[in-house]
Design goal:
- It is built from nine helices and five strands.
- With about 240 residues, the protein is α+β, with helices and mostly antiparallel strands.
- The chain has two domains: about 100 residues, Orthogonal Bundle (DNA polymerase, domain 1), CATH 1.10.150; about 120 residues, 3-Layer(aba) Sandwich (Cytidine Deaminase, domain 2), CATH 3.40.140.10.
- It has a five-stranded mixed β-sheet with strand order 2-1-3-4-5, with helices on both faces.
- Strand 1 and strand 2 form a beta hairpin.
- Helix 2 crosses helix 3 and helix 8 runs parallel beside helix 9.
- It starts with about 25 loop residues before the first helix and ends in a 7-residue tail after the last strand.
């Protein structure tokens, strides 16, 4: 006959951040000092909310970052990647990925129709927050009107860590369809070094020649990396 459960054998309660001193609790620190005062692990702990029976949400957040690296690396994880970590189930994985996706969408909304580009820095400031998180090389074409205002952004290619495959036809076809007057090309270097490669320079020249045949102005080609960018127009290579 089954007896009553032994209280000594019952599952221990989950550890919570409330057990920490008030000045060490991430949520209270955020409210008192602002998000900039918190580490990535502390911000992540607020998203995770609850700990496990063996560790707090902050411990779990630290373990996640120790395993995957930075928030940028965490954003690139799949739900199954996160669920493979002890203490992370589908609900917690969804919370983490949703929060990171929201930050990406905030950056994406900055590139709205009608924004005018006056210098290469304008392009960098708008696209760097998004491209700096990408692990793949992404090649974009910004279609502009006669006053250098954005009409549309086109993703031309998404490649591996070394290169994105770009065909001039894939760049010019949407530009001609949209009757764009000018183009700005942008791609990222996941390596962190924005220096254009010889292939980048050759491709730029091919695209410049193709644009000249169609009457479309190629204003610039930016290479964006983690810490900065290089404009081929600013450096006289366009």
């Amino acid at each position: 006959m089954n007896g009553y459960p032994d209280p000594d054998q019952a599952d221990p309660p989950r550890l919570t951040l409330k057990e920490l001193p008030p000045d060490e609790r991430p949520r209270e620190r955020l409210l008192a000092k602002g998000a900039d005062a918190l580490t990535d692990a502390e911000l992540l702990a607020i998203i995770i909310r609850d700990g496990t029976r063996k560790e707090t949400a902050l411990d779990l957040a630290r373990r996640l970052l120790a395993r995957f690296g930075t928030l940028r690396d965490l954003r690139a994880c799949s739900p199954s990647d996160l669920c493979a970590v002890n203490g992370i189930g589908p609900a917690r994985a969804a919370q983490i990925l949703a929060a990171l996706a929201l930050s990406s969408r905030i950056n994406d909304t900055s590139l709205r129709r009608g924004v005018a580009f006056r210098a290469s820095r304008d392009v960098f400031d708008l696209l760097h927050p998004r491209l700096r998180h990408e692990k793949q090389e992404i090649f974009l074409a910004l279609l502009l009107d006669t006053r250098n205002r954005i009409q549309r952004e086109i993703e031309i290619s998404r490649g591996g860590l070394s290169a994105a495959l770009v065909n001039p036809r894939d760049v010019l076809a949407p530009a001609l369809t949209d009757k764009a007057s000018a183009l700005i090309l942008v791609h990222n270097h996941p390596s962190g070094d924005p220096a254009p490669s010889p292939d980048d320079i050759r491709l730029t020249q091919r695209l410049k020649e193709a644009c000249q045949l169609t009457g479309i102005r190629l204003l610039d080609h930016l290479v964006i990396a983690e810490e900065g960018y290089i404009s081929l127009a600013d450096t006289g290579r366009l």
